[in-house]
Specification:
CATH class of the largest domain: Alpha Beta
Shape: globular
Number of helices: 24
Structural class: alpha/beta
Distance between the termini: 46 Å
CATH topology of the largest domain: TIM Barrel
Helix content: 25-40%
Oligomer: single chain
Largest sheet: 8 strands, parallel, barrel
Radius of gyration: 29 Å
Length: 763
């Protein structure tokens, strides 16, 4: 087998990075203290990142940096500062969620390779094509996809010269990544900012099926699915676990390394996966990958199963047997700890010591001798210190008697001490053999410094700093703010006659193949504007595209970039929906410049202050939803198997189209959340409060072209159904500035919150 299969390891801290390298990872992904979707991990400092890069490259391993969060407008200065540093490292790629970051990197930092994060929820062909267009060199596919879907998307990616990456081991989110707001809503810590509080692992009041952790999935493991992944053409096999330690990383990566090598060399698999059970696990499932989603994917215990597995393996029943089994596993865990410590003991990532010797006499060239040595640079094989690296740079002209400008020690210090940075610590600057009262042109001294920088940067030119560009905030096309509404039932089409604003019709995530139900809705009601969901997979994406082809609407709202990409190809105008998580001006530019968007909804996760400085591109609409049910998470799995139960042993195609169940789950604080399953929709969980933000109408009437209200009833749970005609009238009064409207809306909408507008996204 000639094609490289990359094994990609997590590196939550320095020791985990080292453990991954010695265990045989081809690449490691890690994060810094900022812009990183695993804030709970220890992460690396910038100096440690540089040391890790040097160490990894010495062992033929790559390093990818996670910048996989949405970016806030006020953070752009710090982001540019970081990117200016990163382009002058040997970093192998950055992992990105925010669409604005694609725009910034493509324009200003093109030497950085961009990997599209799993947070971008990539699950259809046109999303891959779009990501390739905006600069992605690889795409992490949604972990809910099955092998057939992965192969289809990988084939498309390879045609676009893009690699694909698939999670093969570690924790599973029950929600679609990037589409989970449960932590943001419940405790103000967003998963889109790396602060997920893991509500899916929380304890709830026992459900009708007797489960206290009804949202908790087993861990993912495709250990025995390697041949199918290889056949699907997947380029990178990614292990989850940046919050886990070095022992976990080493054990899992070592096991996968042996599995891959055995398969490549013999075509066979190692049948023993017992090593994977010796470190943290919630038991394992591969059901997303095989497309066989049963309730066996769940476990009611979110904690470590390794000790339970030891009991099962040893058939331990009695107290003595259980004690012996636990002791044996504890001994094995201690052995793993000792092994890993021994392996990484001599791997040093501290700064290299730099000595500079300056020599030069009359009529001789000015010379800089560069000596680089690691403080503890020891090979694993023989523990012998390596020889220091030595370079020499000379002037292109001899030194002359100084006339006015003397190249003295102070002048040299000023220029060359800057090499004491994230990579080097200057140990010595030796001027012993430099003559007195001599000179060369300062322009030549600058050239020498540049050449020294080139050599210290592993043969790469140092890229000059890029300044943060100042964007222009363009005015609204019209000095009015309109009110639009969202409906999902054709019975509500009469509301079109009660408003001058746009009326959007929400489409489901799943369609019956070759069924014209929704096509006819738009043909018979041309005033309705199609609203496409965030997730459209396989035949459902194809049916969504067919709707575009037949209806040919003038405008659509899309929460899915794949649908948007197709719309642009057909000459259909589109506006980015709120589930595209748009939080900054540069994301708006990406949508406009690369996908011809005519406008975008600003994310409801950000607060008043965070949206204040967002700048409108020219001829671009800015929109915001002021009233809607608060989505917490959407899943491809079934929330009903563990709550009220279901007679079906597994989810099949008919579940999406026919099931229309609803129930609630109640947390230990007594708060109930509605679980809603619309026909044609994925099961979703909604907050107990409705989002109602009337403040923004007065705060930012000059910023937004349109405010929207959601009148779909989706996710309302057992709340009282409100008179939509009356509700609409009150919102119209609110938009027009009538002071009584807020009181009337507060009276009608009993359970509500605008907390996200107050708290926003935590830094």
């Amino acid at each position: 087998m000639s094609r490289k299969i990359e094994l990609l390891a997590p590196g939550g801290d320095v020791n985990a990075v080292k453990a991954a390298i010695v265990a045989g990872a081809n690449a490691v992904y890690c994060g810094l203290d900022t812009f990183n979707a695993r804030n709970r991990a220890s992460n690396l400092s910038f100096d440690e990142l540089n040391g890790a890069l040097r160490l990894a490259h010495e062992y033929g391993c790559e390093i990818f940096l996670t910048l996989n969060v949405v970016i806030l407008e006020h953070e752009m200065g710090a982001l540019f500062k970081l990117l200016n540093q990163l382009v002058n490292t040997t970093l192998d790629g950055i992992i990105v969620q925010d669409l604005g970051l694609f725009n910034i990197v493509k324009k200003h930092f093109p030497t950085l390779h961009i990997h599209a994060s799993t947070q971008l929820t990539t699950h259809n062909e046109s999303q891959v094509e779009f990501l390739a267009r905006i600069g992605a060199t690889r795409v992490n596919l949604s972990r809910e996809l099955n092998l057939t879907e992965i192969k289809i998307l990988t084939d498309v990616a390879h045609k676009c010269d893009v690699l694909t990456e698939v999670f093969v081991h570690g924790a599973l989110c029950i929600a679609f990544s990037g589409q989970c707001y449960s932590s943001s809503v419940s405790v103000g810590n967003s998963g889109n900012r790396g602060r997920c509080s893991q509500a899916c692992r929380d304890e709830y009041e026992p459900t009708a099926m007797g489960n206290k952790h009804p949202l908790n999935l087993k861990d993912n493991s495709a250990y025995f699915d390697l041949p199918e992944l290889v056949a699907a053409g997947v380029d990178s096999l990614k292990v989850e676990g940046r919050i886990k330690g070095a022992n976990y990383v080493h054990t899992v990566i070592d096991s996968w390394r042996k599995q891959i090598d055995t398969f490549v060399q013999t075509g066979n698999l190692i049948e023993d996966d017992s090593s994977l059970y010796k470190v943290f696990n919630r038991n394992f499932t591969n059901k997303f990958l095989t497309g066989d989603m049963t309730k066996s994917m769940f476990t009611d215990n979110p904690r470590d199963h390794s000790f339970d597995h030891a009991n099962e393996k040893n058939n331990a029943i009695s107290v003595v047997q259980i004690y012996d089994a636990q002791q044996e596993l504890s001994t094995q865990k201690s052995e793993i700890d000792s092994l890993v410590k021994k392996k990484i003991e001599f791997l040093d990532i501290s700064k290299r010591e730099l000595s500079l010797e300056f020599t030069g006499q009359l009529n001789q060239p000015f010379t800089v001798n560069i000596i680089i040595e690691d403080k503890n640079d020891i090979t694993l094989s023989n523990k012998n210190a390596k020889e220091p690296l030595r370079f020499e740079v000379q002037s292109q002209m001899p030194m002359q008697i100084a006339d006015k400008s003397v190249v003295d020690i102070a002048a040299i210090d000023k220029r060359f001490k800057t090499f004491s940075n994230a990579n080097f610590e200057i140990k010595n600057m030796d001027y012993t053999n430099l003559g007195d009262n001599l000179s060369i042109p300062f322009k030549e001294l600058a050239r020498i410094k540049k050449q020294v920088a080139f050599l210290l940067n592993e043969g790469k030119d140092v890229i000059a700093q890029v300044e943060l560009p100042k964007l222009v905030n363009h005015e609204k096309a019209e000095n009015i703010t309109t009110l639009s509404i969202l409906i999902s039932d054709i019975k509500d089409a009469h509301l079109c006659n009660l408003t001058d604003g746009d009326v959007y019709f929400k489409l489901p995530e799943s369609f019956r193949t070759d069924n014209d139900k929704y096509i006819n809705v738009f043909l018979e009601h041309p005033q309705l504007i199609p609203w496409f969901p965030a997730v459209l997979i396989g035949k459902d994406f194809e049916e969504a595209v067919r709707l575009l082809e037949v209806v040919k609407p003038k405008l659509i709202i899309s929460n899915n970039t794949g649908v948007a990409y197709k719309a642009v190809q057909m000459g259909i105008d589109w506006i980015a929906g709120p589930l595209l998580n748009t939080t900054n001006s540069y994301a708006l530019l990406t949508l406009q410049e690369d996908l011809n968007a005519k406008g975008a909804f600003i994310s409801n996760e950000i607060n008043k202050q965070q949206m204040r400085s967002i700048k409108r591109p020219n001829k671009f609409k800015m929109m915001y939803s002021i009233y809607h049910p608060i989505l917490m998470m959407t899943s491809r799995q079934c929330f009903f198997q563990q709550t009220v139960g279901c007679k079906k042993p597994r989810i099949d195609a008919s579940c999406m189209l026919s099931c229309k169940k609803e129930t609630t789950v109640t947390n230990v604080k007594g708060i109930s959340f509605a679980i809603d399953k619309q026909k044609g929709g994925y099961p979703s969980i909604y907050n107990h409060e409705q989002f109602l933000n009337m403040d923004i109408v007065t705060d930012y009437a000059d910023k937004f072209d349109e405010f929207m209200i959601d009148l779909t009833d989706i996710g309302s749970g057992d709340k009282e159904k409100l008179d939509k005609t009356v509700l609409l009238a009150h919102f119209q009064d609110l938009i027009s500035g009538q002071t009584h409207a807020a009181d009337q809306l507060n009276h009608m909408v009993k359970v509500k919150t605008r907390q996200q507008y107050v708290e926003g996204l935590n830094s």
